[in-house]
Automatic annotation (TrEMBL):
CDD domains: GST_C_YfcG_like (cd10291), GST_N_Ure2p_like (cd03048). Belongs to the GST superfamily. SUPFAM superfamilies: GST C-terminal domain-like (SSF47616), Thioredoxin-like (SSF52833). This is Thiol:disulfide oxidoreductase. It comes from Sphingomonas corticis.
């Protein structure tokens, strides 16, 4: 039913988390971003930003032609609408889901992505950039920790796409963070990690990338040297 174009990155994991939770039938098409497979013409036809994940829904609810969706946040919202699940239990809850999903897409993901780039992948260590993004990561961890005080999940008692969007990006050791500073975040992270669907989703990622390897300089050029051409 769902064809998922995927590589096991935080944004890729978001979608397998949903699909496993919802029990939807899906097929994974690996998109090895280190090899530049995201630039294949057939992929660009429905993912014009040359980024994964993207999906093709071969059985949309309106019974019409297949629907393609790119951008991980848009995919999560599409799937929540399709299934009627994980999008908030009522209108007020739905608004909160939208708020925190947009927070992840506009803040948590981009800022932590810059943390990863300057601490792990940049050809030279730039202390200002590293300090800037490690501190911003710390600030964002704090925002989420305060939100989770007294709540099981980001939107109260309900596990939603807001949790699925944020969870894969919380990588404290790689991001220079001490989870002891964030007890609510640590509790939530452990609870999401222990969900059977989370375990299945990450197992799928390990199957796709059976032997993770250090990114080569050539692969870094593919990922980080892109221009409009």
């Amino acid at each position: 039913m769902i064809e998922l174009y995927y590589w096991p990155t935080p944004n890729g994991h978001k979608i397998t988390l949903f699909l496993e939770e919802a029990g939807l039938d899906y097929t994974i098409h690996p998109v090895n971003i280190g090899k530049g497979e995201q630039f294949a013409p057939e992929f660009l036809r429905f993912s014009p930003n040359n980024r994964m994940p993207a999906i093709i829904d071969r059985a949309p609810t309106d019974g019409g032609e297949p629907i393609t969706v790119f951008e991980s946040g848009a995919i999560l919202l599409y799937l929540a609408h399709k299934t009627g699940r994980f999008g908030g239990a009522d209108p007020r809850g739905h608004v909160q889901v939208l708020e925190w999903l947009m927070w992840q897409m506009g803040g948590l993901g981009p800022m932590l992505g810059q943390n990863h780039h300057f601490t792990r992948y940049a050809p030279e260590k730039i202390p200002y950039a590293i300090d800037r993004y490690v501190k911003e990561t710390n600030r964002l961890y704090g925002v989420l920790d305060r939100r989770l005080e007294g709540r099981a999940f980001i939107v109260g008692d309900d596990y939603t796409v807001a949790d699925m969007a944020c969870f894969p990006w919380i990588l404290p050791e790689a991001q220079g963070q001490d989870m002891a500073q964030f007890p609510n975040l640590a509790r939530w992270h452990a609870a999401v990690k222990a969900r059977p669907a989370t375990e299945r989703a990450y197992a799928k990622g390990r199957e796709v990338q059976a032997q993770p390897v250090e990114m080569s300089e050539e692969q870094k050029k593919v990922l980080f040297g892109q221009t409009a051409r």
